[in-house]
Amino acid sequence: MQIAMVAGEASGDLLASHLIRALKRHVPQARFVGIGGPKMQAEGFETWWPQEKLAVRGYAEVLRHYPELAGIRRKLAARLLAERPAAFIGVDAPDFNLWLERRCKTRGIPAIHYVSPSIWAWRGGRVKNIARSVSHMLCLFPFEPALYEAARVPVSYVGHPLADVFPLEWQRRAARARLGIGEDAQVFALLPGSRQSELQYMAQTYVETARLLQQRFPASRCLVPFATRETRDIFEAALWRANAQDLPVVMLFGHAHDALAACDAALVASGTATLEAALLRAPHVITYKMSPWSWRIMKRMGYQPWVGLPNILAGRFVVPEILQDDAQPEILAQALGNLMSDREVRARMRAVFEDIHRTLRCNTAEAAAAAILPYLGAGLRATLGCEAA
């Protein structure tokens, strides 16, 4: 049996690798093919094009690479329709995958989309195209299925994989031990983003915020994890511009999870890192800056009063959100200082974060596999028949 998959970036590669492992427990003879990354390949996945070809972000980048991306997609669609896999599973990357899924579905190949696009945040009209394109939607958040049920799209809630990865117990002591930090130390974690564009807008603000925190909490230190050498270089340049090289800033390569688990309070750029902060029980403030033009567009497109995933999941403002023009060092430092000084507020935040963690913890890969198995149909029966023979 052949099962086709496309995962467009590192997060999808990880998600898909767990799903492949779960599906193999039910259909060990299945062959997984398409476009994927190293984690999928480690599970035996056969990639027809490098995943890096799809890992393009930003309007300008997409436009520049569009001819190549469109060519890959057309060739992949032709091969899928010729080989007719038992199912096609698009992992995230909706702009690329929904086009493929619609062509598979119309030709009788079950098309499953894993990770709902954020139709609850903006561009809700996409649900009509999704309904035409997918046989089944797999959702990571519990509020998403109702949106698809209203549009008569078959849907399953499977939980979030990070909730399975992170233990339910608070990991503060172990994280501090790994980082060589004492139990009584005052620790802030500063996460300015993983992309160079994010650092370019926020690095200087984070440095000035760290300076103000050091003035109010002289014995404190700031942990700043970076995903790449390039993002660290941007932050270091901001330190030099501010003549702030003497600040008690500990720059880490990776170790974002340890920094969040170890801290008393964190400043986190909006995105998946805010969910990681909640799952690691890090009281935090959410911030973000982008170009004024992009901000105006996002404000017009947004449907909800919150941008941070912990607040969206809680349905209320649990975590302060200080965004764009309001994201000034004085305001951010005041909010973080308030968190550091109020143990009761931090405890209440952590209690909400634990509830979120338990809600999202669903053994995601197995739940996704269980939703996909009925679509394998004749292919699964044929495989089982061969094994019996």
How would you explain this protein's 3D organization?
The protein is an alpha/beta fold and 389 residues long. It has two domains: 185 residues, Glycogen Phosphorylase B (Rossmann fold); 189 residues, 3-Layer(aba) Sandwich (Rossmann fold), CATH 3.40.50.2000. Helices cover 53% and strands 16% of the residues. The chain is built from 17 helices and 13 strands. The strands form two sheets. It has a seven-stranded parallel beta sheet, with helices on both faces. Helix 1 packs across helix 17 and helix 8 crosses helix 11. The radius of gyration is 22 Å and the shape is elongated.
Structural class: alpha/beta
Oligomer: single chain
Residue share in helix: 40-55%
Quote the distance from N terminus to C terminus. Answer: 16 Å
Offer a few descriptive terms.
389 residues, alpha/beta, Rossmann fold, seven-stranded parallel sheet, six-stranded parallel sheet, disordered C terminus
Write the layout of secondary structure elements.
Blueprint: E1 2-7, H1 10-26, E2 31-36, H2 38-42, E3 46-50, H3 59-83, E4 87-91, H4 94-106, E5 111-114, H5 126-133, E6 136-139, H6 145-150, E7 155-157, H7 161-165, H8 172-179, E8 187-191, H9 196-216, E9 221-226, H10 229-241, E10 249-253, H11 256-262, E11 265-269, H12 272-279, E12 284-288, H13 292-301, H14 309-314, E13 321-323, H15 329-341, H16 343-360, H17 364-388
Parallel strand pairs: 1-2, 1-4, 2-3, 4-5, 5-6, 6-7, 8-9, 8-11, 9-10, 11-12, 12-13
